[in-house]
């Protein structure tokens, strides 16, 4: 068996440590498809895994990277053959199963989806789990019956990965988009993605009253905690907020008032074990509805040897939009 380049996280006496290593192919985990990984990306969860800021990794040693795009080398799965280009998001990859920050991966074919028509592997990773989750959130709002005619949509953490894609696809769907960010210097960037209004983090600080002035009918929240509580208190009657992140925290200091006095719904969005039909629908819609120029404007491409630095930056809130990692 050959060796290949990878990022590996090892357990230490004080926590964990990430480093670039030569990884033995014989140590890959079980799976019926082996891939040559060509691209990955940097999500907030990847940052938590590499920095050890949160117990994301549940098996050591671990190759992090919850996303990957690549080409099938060998397959015992009837759905895939050598040469097929595929995408993987979630399923515990980078947490419990060796992930995407490596030149090779061995995974279950059931976790894979074909590279969507019209997307390159690099574009698929520019979207990544962040953009795929944003589309799942939009689909959840639509399934609940929310439409642009009901009012504006708020996006929190708008300059981040989920937020950037959310702004673009909500605008495409016809919404008046309000983008909330802790980085007001990114206003021009957000307007370029489709934001009609900009709010700052300060607008969501301080005590939350049970009900506040009604401002939006829909929302995609990747922040959680106090910000989400403020968002819910300002949601219009029979509106809905899709929650998919916890950048600010896991707590939710709110009351039942928005739910029982305005009929507001909080929709949970889970992307890791999402059923394949929903995955295929989300990816097909992203390939069709996400403007390529906007995708390019939110994307920065980095070499493989910048992954660990980028992971630290994303946890510190220094990354705008999406990072694509080229695997040499």
Shape: globular
Report the total helices.
Answer: 9
Report the order of strands and helices.
Answer: EEEHEEEEHEHEHEEHEHEHHEHE
Query: CATH topology of the largest domain, anyone?
Result: Quinone Oxidoreductase, Chain A, domain 1
Mean pLDDT, nearest integer? 96
* Radius of gyration from CA coordinates: 20 Å
Helix content: 25-40%
What is the second-level CATH architecture of the largest domain? Answer: Alpha-Beta Complex
What's the end-to-end separation, in Å?
19 Å
What structural class do you assign from the helix and strand content? Answer: alpha/beta
How many beta-strand elements?
Answer: 15
Characterize the largest beta sheet: strand count, sense, and whether it forms a barrel: 7 strands, mixed
Q: Assign the CATH superfamily of the largest domain.
A: Medium-chain alcohol dehydrogenases, catalytic domain
Strand content: 25-35%
Count of discrete structural domains: 2
Low-pLDDT runs of 5+ residues are: none
CATH level-1 class of the largest domain: Alpha Beta
Keyword list:
globular, Quinone Oxidoreductase, Chain A, domain 1, alpha/beta, 328 residues, six-stranded parallel sheet
Can you tell me about this structure?
The protein is an alpha/beta fold and 328 residues long. The protein folds into 2 domains: 3-115 and 298-326, Quinone Oxidoreductase, Chain A, domain 1; 129-268, NAD(P)-binding Rossmann-like Domain (Rossmann fold). Helices cover 28% and strands 28% of the residues. It is built from 9 helices and 15 strands. It has helices spanning 44-51, 121-143, 161-172, 187-193, 225-233, 257-261, 276-289, 292-297, 307-315, and strands at residues 3-12, 15-24, 33-41, 67-75, 85-89, 104-107, 112-114, 153-155, 177-181, 197-200, 216-221, 235-243, 265-268, 299-303, 322-326. Helix 1 crosses helix 9 and helix 2 (121-143) packs across helix 3. The longest helix is centred in the middle third of the chain and has 23 residues, at 121-143.
């Amino acid at each position: 068996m050959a060796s290949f380049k990878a990022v590996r996280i090892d357990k230490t006496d004080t926590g964990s440590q990430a480093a670039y290593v030569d990884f033995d192919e014989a140590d890959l985990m079980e799976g019926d498809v082996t891939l040559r990984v060509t691209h990955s990306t940097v999500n907030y969860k990847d940052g938590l895994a590499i920095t050890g800021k949160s117990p994301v990794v549940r098996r050591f040693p671990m190759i992090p990277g919850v996303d990957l795009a690549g080409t099938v080398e060998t397959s015992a799965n009837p759905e895939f053959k050598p040469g097929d280009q595929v995408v993987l998001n979630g399923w515990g990859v980078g947490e419990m199963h060796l992930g995407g920050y490596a030149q090779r991966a061995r995974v279950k074919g059931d976790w894979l989806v074909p590279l969507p028509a019209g997307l390159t592997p690099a574009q698929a990773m520019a979207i990544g789990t962040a953009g795929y989750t944003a589309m799942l959130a939009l689909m959840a709002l639509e399934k609940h019956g929310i439409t642009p005619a009901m009012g504006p949509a708020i996006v929190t953490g708008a300059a981040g990965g989920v937020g950037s894609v959310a702004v673009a696809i909500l605008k495409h769907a016809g919404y008046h988009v309000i983008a909330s960010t802790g980085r007001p210097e990114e206003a021009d960037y957000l307007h370029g993605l489709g934001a009609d209004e900009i709010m700052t983090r300060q607008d969501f600080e301080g005590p939350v009253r049970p009900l506040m002035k009604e401002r939006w009918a829909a929302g995609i929240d990747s922040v959680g905690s106090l910000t989400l509580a403020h968002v819910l208190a300002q949601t219009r009657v029979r509106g809905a907020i899709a929650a998919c992140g916890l950048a600010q925290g896991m707590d939710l200091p709110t009351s039942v008032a928005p739910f029982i006095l305005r009929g507001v719904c909080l929709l949970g969005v889970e992307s890791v074990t999402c059923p394949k039909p929903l995955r295929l629908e989300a990816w097909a819609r992203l390939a069709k509805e996400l403007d390529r120029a906007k995708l390019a404007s939110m994307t920065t491409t980095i070499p493989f040897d910048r992954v660990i630095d980028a992971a630290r930056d994303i946890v510190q809130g220094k990354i705008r939009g999406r990072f694509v990692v080229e695997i040499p």
